[in-house]
Fold each of these.
Amino acid sequence: DDEKSVTAASDKKISGLKYLYISKYGSIIFPEKQDLTVNINVTETKSRFVEIFFDHGVNPTDDTYSYIILPLMKRDECKTYYENPDVKILSNTDTVQAVRENTLGMTGIVFWKAVEFEGITPDFACTMLVKNTENGKQIAISDPTMKVTGKHTVVLEGVYKLDGTSDKVTVTDDGSKTTVTIDMTGLDGQTLLFALAEK
């Protein structure tokens, strides 16, 4: 709760850091207070960059960290945002990392493994953006490894139909859950966007 400033070439360890304001660039929020080291490095050409790091120690096990980057957010706005954030971290584990942006109603999910999370179960590791709409969902899905090919499925709770057409996506349901079958062939990491409407 005490403000601290960091000057060039100093190596400052800060305990219980809530947020960091970087003049002319913006702010970084730490939802779970962090013990961090902050350093402003000046290169031989007089350019500056900010180094912020969390010391996990040697061979850490199940250690975590989290942050929210807010470009161009001013110092006073940063404090206000920390007290009432618009972003909520839903999961930060070795199987699923997920965050929701409340104003946009959008959830970003990284599935490190094929597991169920909030009613969504892919059969492969992938990244997703899911936005709830008035009559369904918009989903963007990709394979950052660029190695997944062939047909794969994503099962969602609820009954939906494909809103529009797609040569890569087909949709079926069993009356309580919907199975989205996606042909990943040739995508090579490209994001696939489709919409679902409630039946």
Amino acid sequence: WAQAYTVDATQGTTTHTSVDLTPFVANQSTVYLKFNYVGDHDFFWAIDDIRIYSVPMLDVAVDTITINPYVLAGNNTSTGTISNPGGVALNSVDISYAIDGGSPVYQSLSNLNIPPFGTYNFTFQQPASLTDFVKYQIEVGALGPNGGTDAVASNNSLSTSVNALSAMPSKNVVLEEFTTAQCQYCPMGATTVDVI
């Protein structure tokens, strides 16, 4: 057996994971997959919806947009994550954002070297101008992987809503973990606090 993927950290929620099996399955007539589990005091553990497929050579996807849903009115910088679901490393990508369907603001990323199934965190150089006290819709897009045509257009954009406010309230959050006779020491409680 050859190890293709391992998870060492505790994860409190379900996650989607892609694993490149090419080094293990290329030119093989028969391939077997197995899953090993080692754990202690765990609430549950599961694997579901396994899919094996070939990927296109050039593909880029927008995975996340990171901007607070409530911001002070003015110029606000947004960040995010793009990923490479394709079969070759991505060296260059163009990203953009548009506010309320307006003209996109483009930015070119180069010298990236994002491996297949790898990710890259980006920050837009030009902040978004959110000056009115309204709710804005921001759409982030990615295109032109390695200067070519993206094979899968359905994963190229993501949008989020942002409310521009005249003032930001100050918030304090208190979290308390407690035990009961029913649960006593509760590993799931600690895991939930970690996730929060």
Amino acid sequence: RNRIEVVLDMPPDLPEVWGDANQLQQVLLNLIVNAEQAIGQDGQITIRGRAAGKMVELMVEDTGPGIPQSAISHLFEPFFTSKPNGTGLGLSITHRIVADHGGTIEAFNLDGGGARFTVLLPRVVASQPAQ
């Protein structure tokens, strides 16, 4: 849509995370829609995953203009929005879902433009056999 390329960079051995698949899908959907809206037209969204110790790190990056510095500390507050027709609920709901899953979410501006949202979620740890 809008001539936006989506790049998926997920290793085949990415560990599983505990959680509600529908809620975690909502997290990714909210981040991707926000990235698409930030870009407008002609850009790229990159979705990356990697193991990070006891966590799985998911990153959604866009080639949009980035997040205004004055907005970064308020992004996850309910009803905060920088969009003319936004409700300010998408990122606050995303934050709540991630927190309810024992994870964290942060937003950063990238050098040279664009933004990155990083979600850390606890990975599934195989139980040790009884000895």
Amino acid sequence: KRKDGTLVQVLFQIIPNKNSSGLLIGVTIISRDISEQKKTEIKLRKNEELYRSLIATSPDAILLLDLNGKILMSNKQVAVTLGFNGIEEIQLQNIFSFFTLKDRRRIFRDARKVIESGILKNREYTVIRENGEQIPVEINASLILDMFGKPDGIIVIMRDISERKKAEEAIKNSELRFRSIWENSNDGMRLTNCEGTIVAVNKAYSALIGLNEKDLLGKPFTFIYSKEDCEDPTIELKEYREKFTDR
């Protein structure tokens, strides 16, 4: 306690003083004010608690690796993604062992890039779960530097993208079915945008009109009508745009 009543944290170094016979005759006490050091330690501890809380509650798998790929720390989502019961089962394992042989050479190369450039973004790989199932994942990684600015570790965020891949595959299949119907239909089909401009036609449509696709694209759909059927294309296009707006 200081003279004004405030408390201050100090570090004591106590050194015994002995005479020539080896008997203790007193002590020397060296004290140092460590208040700022303690404040820094408290701040660091709070930041670390916040950091651990964010990692623990993250929906993504987060890992801390050494420069050789050994898992030093991970959250529960890592175990979930890789199909293990708990994080204890994967601690100190090498992350590279979970990747398929097909992707392993690529992940080695990308790991070197992280060490050289400091970051890796949105790279997709396939990992092997504990039960042998293979799932697609997306990985982002950042390099951690020590107090001297030298590479010390790698933080990896790994996301299971199985559902996203299924959705992409469904869209792809839907587009293929649409394209098959579009290209093989005997009926003429035309696609126009909100302004009434032709953006696509199928072969049957070109054959029906008697014009090539390149002659039709970019033209207003009224381009194909006779003057008897469309005396004023402006009115026709205006009505079209109103219908388009009203769906």
